[in-house]
Fold this sequence. Notes:
Protein name: Bacteriophage lambda head decoration protein D
Helix content: 10-25%
Shape: globular
InterPro entries: Head_decoration_D
Pfam families: HDPD (PF02924)
Strand content: 25-35%
Radius of gyration: 14 Å
Strand order of the largest sheet: 2-8-6-4-5
Amino acid sequence: MPVLTQPPSMGDVLKYEVNPNYTREVIILLQGMPYPVGSVLGKITASGKYKLATSGGSDGAQTATAVLLYAVDATLADATGIVVVRGPSIVSRAGLAYDATVDDAAKITTKIGQLATVSIIARDGV
């Protein structure tokens, strides 16, 4: 009998939110890649578009401000996505996806702290 593998879904990332009408926003993702569910995003100051939050830089996206709730393919063009941008919200730490520059525990802790400033709390084991 074949084994079926289910891709990650919003339920693997978002564990609690006070009210979807308050915590979620529709945003534009910068073209250039497919964004997986749980992507930790930062907002580019000049354009207002979002991309994976980097560990450095000065375009504004170095600060984590949102978590993507559904996978979006923005490989060929800017694309629309749905994110949680404010809390109170709880996300699963294990369900988060980071930019390649966020490559060690200290950088991940920094991104989780940045999300906490907008009341998006990452927890283990939820």
